[in-house]
Write a structure and sequence with these properties.
single chain; 66 residues
C-alpha cells in the first residue's frame, strides 16, 4: 500500500456515510446534476453516463460558469 493510500484510509471514518449522501440537498442541485450528468440510475446516483469519455463539464465550462 502506498503511503498516500494509507493516509486516506486513516481518514475514512470522517467521511459522510449516510445512505442518502448522494442525494441532492439544495433546491436546484438535482436539476444541475441532471444538466451535467444526465438522468440518475435506478439507485438515484448520477453516474455521468450521458457524458462522453472525453468531456469534462468543469473543464469545458466558460470561466464565468465555474
Amino acid at each position: 500500500m502506498k503511503p498516500a493510500d494509507a493516509a486516506e484510509l486513516e481518514e475514512m471514518d470522517k467521511v459522510d456515510v449516510h445512505p442518502d449522501v448522494h442525494r441532492a440537498t439544495e433546491p436546484d442541485e438535482d436539476q444541475i446534476l441532471r444538466d451535467l450528468y444526465g438522468e440518475p440510475d435506478a439507485e438515484g446516483v448520477f453516474r455521468g453516463a450521458a457524458i462522453a469519455p472525453h468531456e469534462d463539464p468543469v473543464e469545458d465550462a466558460d470561466e464565468g460558469d465555474v
